[in-house]
Amino acid sequence: MTSFIKKIMRPKTKVYGKQGSVKESQAMNITAPTDFKQVLHITFKDGQIVGLPDVWGEWLSASDISLEEQKKNPEAVYTALKTYESSVKYKDHQKFMLQNDNSTNLSASEDLESKRKSSDDNDPKKTTSNGKSPNQPASKEGAPKNIQCRRNNKAPDKMTEEEVMQAFRDLVSKDDPLKKYDIKQKVGSGASGTVCVATDRQTNHAVAIKKMDLSNQPKKELIITEIEVMKQHQHENIVNFLDCYLVEGPGSRELWVAMEYLEGGALTDVVMETILKENQIAGITKRCTDALAYLHSQEIIHRDIKSDNVLLGMNGEVKLTDFGFCAQITQDRDKRNTMVGTPYWMAPEVVSRKQYGYKVDVWSLGIMVIEMIEGEPPYLNETPIRALYLIASNGKPQIKDKSKLSPDIVNFLDKCLEVEVEKRATCKELMSHPFLGLPVDMTSLRQNILAAKEAASKSF
Questions:
Q1: How far, in Å, CA of 419 to CA of 433, rounded?
Q2: φ and ψ at 132, to 5 degrees?
Q3: Residue 277: its pLDDT value, please?
Q4: Which of 92, 303, 337, 387 is positioned for an S-S bond with 325, CB 3.0–4.6 A?
Q5: Distance between CA atoms of residues 332 and 327, nearest Å
Q6: What is the pLDDT averaged over residues 337-359?
Q7: Class of domain 121-260
Q8: Which Pfam families match (predicted)?
Q9: What residues does CATH 3.30.200.20 cover in the chain?
Q10: Measured between alpha carbons, how far is 61 from 354 in angstroms, rounded to an integer?
């Protein structure tokens, strides 16, 4: 065997024949192994999980998952670690976790507001029309060239830089935005762009303009997806897209996206700083459910429902935004298995990396209702890995003080937060739920918005 190995590893040599001729002897080439899988043998020894990859062990040590919890539900521990691993593989655009790679070193007692805003300034694409920058979740797959093309089972190829720029040129208006809009003050900024309030010179209406430096956008396909969804799907409870422009100068390329300006800002500020009445929660939820029912009827899953992605107007408007992670589902591709969404709002089937459909939005909607009740989603003070573990282990989260809630809102939450997907309600079914029928004057939200703005100003 040893001589055989030496023989096949021998390099090219010169061999002299009987007539003195010289010929080359070609050594056999050995290629790397293909189509192999790494099998993990994870067991418990002396009350601890052993057999984990080194980096998993480090994550687990910093996750705040106790040894008792690990022993009680090792499958949930594995699920949480596997899901977290998928997120950090795509850390370049910081869309999944609220923290960066060092997040596992954060203590469970970290300040709530800093957790919610730890990545606020990293991505102006996510900046809301009032200049706020909500937290970023991550996607395992990039956006397709055109969402209308997702009608086959093969994942789209990654777009080249040239294809991306051509897609932008096909989307944008040829008009000069500086002639159409009078740019006012900057209301938000991030690592790669800014958000400004502008006035339409013809109508004198205020608009929000996102200015994105394309050289600093690692996932340009997501921006294309978001624009296409907003452009093609108009609804009274979805932020109204106006136009977009490619502004190219010496050594720079900016994408300007003009959209409806909602002065009230993100729902997050209101739920964190004020206590909403139950009928106000019902009114907000009804409009979000209506928007989701529309998107689902158009075979689109939003995949990132949370208070950060709901914008409020000063006159009671409630609108969904941020469609960078939406996905189109058709009859020949009616389930998805990509891992996207922010962990605290994530449905159990997504955490468990199972195929999923429209009802992931329904679960996230239920978590957002808990946000409006309690001021934060369940497990927000936990590390991301422990939060994933608790979702996988517990399923439906517990409400802190259910006794203060009406039977209607409790029943609504039960229908949204049903772990068994088949039993979970659809948005269309939820629209006829008694909870969403509570009478409410939506203009009452103005007082909550003003109170939230005042509280936020005092914190700086």
A1: 19
A2: -75, 150
A3: 97
A4: 303
A5: 14
A6: 78
A7: alpha beta
A8: PBD, Pkinase
A9: 121-260
A10: 26
CATH of domain 44-116: 3.90.810.10
pLDDT of residue 51: 67
DSSP letter, residue 24:
E
Residue 238: how many other CB atoms lie within 10 Å: 23
Rounded mean pLDDT of 162-175? Answer: 87
Over residues 363-409, the pLDDT tens digits come to 999 999 999 999 999 988 888 888 888 888 888 998 888 889 999 99
Beta partners for residue 248, in sequence order: 253
Most confident range, picked from 122-136, 243-257, 419-433 = 419-433
- If pLDDT is split at 50, 70 and 90, which confidence band does 32 have? low
- Gyration radius of the chain's alpha carbons: 26
3-class DSSP assignment, residue 317: coil
Q: Is the pLDDT of residue 413 over 80?
A: yes
* Beta-carbon count within 10 A of 317 CB: 19
pLDDT at 299: 87
| CA dist., res. 292 & res. 369, Å (int) | 14
Domain 265-458 is found in CATH 1.10.10.410: no
CB-based contact 115:387 (threshold 8 Å): no
* Residue-level pLDDT at 458: 78
Q: What is the DSSP letter of 399?
A: P
pLDDT of 139 > 90? The answer is: no
Known binding positions: 211
316 sits in the region (left: phi over 0; alpha: psi -120 to 50; else beta) called left
Known catalytic residue at 304: yes
CB 295 within 8 A of CB 243: no
CB contact set of 124 (below 8 Å; sequence gap of 6+): 133, 188, 189, 190, 191, 192, 193, 194, 195, 210, 211, 212
Report DSSP letters for 410-441, one per residue.
HHHHHHHS-SSGGGSPPHHHHTT-GGGG----
Tokens standing for residue 94 = 């910081």
Query: Which one-letter DSSP state was computed for residue 310?
Result: E
DSSP 268-285: HHHHHHSPPPHHHHHHHH
What's the whole-number average pLDDT of the chain?
A: 75
Active-site hit among 304, 308, 322, 361: 304
Residues that constitute the known binding site for ATP: 211
CA atoms of 390 and 407, how far apart (whole Å): 26
Contact status, residue 44 vs residue 51, Cβ threshold 8 Å: no
pTM of the predicted protein model: 0.68
Range(s) of the chain covered by CATH 3.90.810.10: 44-116
Residue ranges matching CATH 1.10.510.10 in the chain:
265-458
